[in-house]
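input
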Amino acid sequence: MVGPPGGRAAWLAWAIGCSVYVLAVVHRTSLGVAGLDATERFGIGASALSTFSILQVLVYAAMQIPVGLLVDRFGPRRVLMLGVLLMSLGQLAFAFSTSFGPALGSRAVLGCGDAMTFISVLRVSARWFPAAQNPLVAQLTGLAGMGGNLVTTVVLARALHQEGWTFSFGAIALAGTAVLALVLLLREAPAVPLGLVAPAPPRLSVRRQIRDSWQEPGTRLGMWVHFTTAFPAAAFGLLWGLPFLVEGQGLSRGAAGGLLTLMVVSTMLFGVLFGRLVSLSAAARMPIAGAVVAATALSWAVVLAWPDGHPPRWLLVLLLVVMGSNGPGSLIGLDFARAHNPAERMGTASGIANMGGFVGAVLTLLGIGVLLDALSDGGGYTAEAYRWAFCWQFLPLALGAAMILRLHRTVRRAPRG
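output
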């Protein structure tokens, strides 16, 4: 059988898939620059505000295994089309919502559509590119997604204050029509001469597909790497970053937006670096993942331990640069799952691994929101309240690091799936 060809046609297919992922990141992170506006629009506090992102991410995480199964059985093109439709409908409903209940439901629909994008793009890439290029292409996919984050932090943040809530979120929803037109042109796999087509592997039952993927230690290691490396930046970018910088550190919205943009740029640079290193040597995966976890924990420890609760600007800059490594680091988890599973269950295994960081984000979003409300004096959230609330992050960081070390030993002893 002839391997994936790569080349211009492969990059075109990847670019079409990436357009959906960029849109998904815009949808996913849109609330991150609108948290303070949402508290005023819906008349809610920190715990209720965190519920928006928690539900959205929880739906995303819960959908990862079903989406992986759908991709394995029906192909990425159909799944991407469904994802675009659901995201557009959810965001449009959110744009016109004026009360908490309908807005919450719309974020759930949005999260469901978002869940269908990244795994589908990875599957398209696996079919079009040689295996040695997959780690780099995965990092480039994440890098492209950061373009969506830039749209959120730069364009959407400005539009919210100039054009208002309904116009800004409605415009994002309508952008889905252009992306859907592109997906209709997507070729999900290269044409193979008839005589070179390999016989299709037997189709396993859903239970067997999930069981075999989960029993592979590389899948579980990928999930815990994704869990531990992804959630700090995810929780910060999805919701708590802007409030922490504005209310907790006393920065202006403009300065806070600049720091969030810095994190996005840092993510892009780390994505290129990590993708190149892992493409050159698979042995680089674990050292990179360990360095990301250690640097993130150390940076947060120094920031939160600063005597008066207001660390200097250079230290906040360093923290945001380090957190830029979180997203690229989490993609190493997906590479573990890809490398240790056969093609016929790659979508399912990727779904399991991709679930990790979003489960961690849910735990962090909820923990910080509950602690902020518990520490509030009724007149807002102080720097001291933010300091103790953000200490919650060290619990999932410690759990994830312990599980990575344990499963790494298991993977080194186990044969590949």
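quick obs: The chain is about 80% helix and 0% strand.
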